[in-house]
Write a structure and sequence with these properties.
315 residues; alpha+beta; Alpha-Beta Plaits; 6-stranded antiparallel sheet; 8 helices; 17 strands; 34% helix; globular
């Protein structure tokens, strides 16, 4: 081959090699971008699928609430507000490979359980528990705990399809109004509990994380994914409050917490699992009482003192 032919040959090969190099770099950049999006939490597609904006939580978690404002449930003579015990929710945590971990809790009437479960199963969202949280409420409500790992938007569409089989309000929620005053001495409650909370939907809500890190399927499960003790106070007049929620316990803490609650006039109403395969193994104890709010807060503090909670949340 003459010199001119060799020059022409190299001129053809070099653009091909450069083109392949740029293609490889573009692919790597795209993959890195996808990973970065997962880490940063680009939730626009999830917002669209669920028909509402989520609430950002620590550790990159995004949480979506679906209050069952369509239900009128009475327990112990108290009309239960959605924020007390009737709030369906799902939360998404970015994990490896651009995927997300989904966990949640759906509040359902008995006739809604079958259709919702079928829709969830069809979309690859698993059920990890189905049970009561309250006792003697009317109408009876059940709580379906769900989990999955996969594409966040696809999982969100599955959850929306499942909720669409129920009477859960799915329209875009109204803009949040300024927090209304609540007929409770929340400062006294926080002092007694050793943990402060916030007012949401006419209910004072307190979250107390556990001390240790929870893992499931090789992933860290942050407290906002449903593994923090939740305590809710709904005022019932005259300084009283109806309280419910759930203590998140290891096996050795179950009996001491039951004794502490009962010693202070607080009734355990359910004891069960919410998750599958978590480490350490957790048990969830729900409770109910309606009495002087500060007195109940001291009883709840006695129970909290019998379990491993983060000192940073306690005063």
């Amino acid at each position: 081959m003459n010199a001119a032919g060799r020059i022409a040959r190299h001129a053809v090969r070099r653009p091909v090699r450069v083109s392949l190099l740029f293609s490889l770099l573009a692919g790597l950049a795209s993959a890195a971008g996808a990973q970065q999006t997962a880490r940063a939490g680009d939730w626009a597609a999830v917002d669209q699928a669920l028909g509402r904006k989520g609430a950002a939580q620590p550790a990159g978690v995004m949480k979506y609430g679906f209050p069952r404002s369509d239900l009128h449930v009475t327990a112990g003579g108290v009309e239960v507000k959605p924020a007390l015990a009737l709030g369906s929710w799902v939360a998404f945590e970015p994990v490896d490979g651009g995927r997300a971990m989904l966990m949640g809790d759906l509040v359902l009437t008995e006739d809604e359980v079958g259709p919702a479960m079928q829709a969830l199963q069809r979309g690859g969202v698993e059920q990890s528990a189905l049970h009561n949280h309250l006792l003697g409420e009317s109408p009876h409500v059940l709580y379906m705990h769900v989990s999955a790992i996969g594409d966040a938007a696809a999982l969100a569409r599955t959850v929306h399809d499942a909720l669409a089989t129920t009477h859960t309000p799915l329209g875009a929620p109204a803009s949040p109004a300024a927090a209304a005053a609540i007929d409770l001495d929340t400062a006294a409650i926080a002092h007694a509990l050793g943990a402060s909370g916030k007012v949401n939907g006419g209910v004072y809500q307190v979250s107390v994380p556990r001390r240790e890190t929870i893992h499931m399927g090789g992933h860290v499960v942050p407290p906002s994914m449903g593994v923090a003790t939740g305590i809710n106070f709904q005022p019932t007049g005259g300084g009283k409050a109806a309280i419910t929620g759930d203590f998140v316990l290891t096996a050795g803490e179950v009996s001491p917490v039951i004794r502490a609650l009962r010693e202070h006039g607080i009734a355990p109403t359910a004891l069960h699992s919410h998750m599958l395969g978590e480490e350490p193994r957790l048990y969830f104890m729900h409770f109910w009482a309606n009495d002087d709010a500060a007195t109940l807060a001291r009883g709840l503090r006695a129970a909290l003192d019998r379990m491993a909670t983060k000192s940073a949340t306690r005063r």
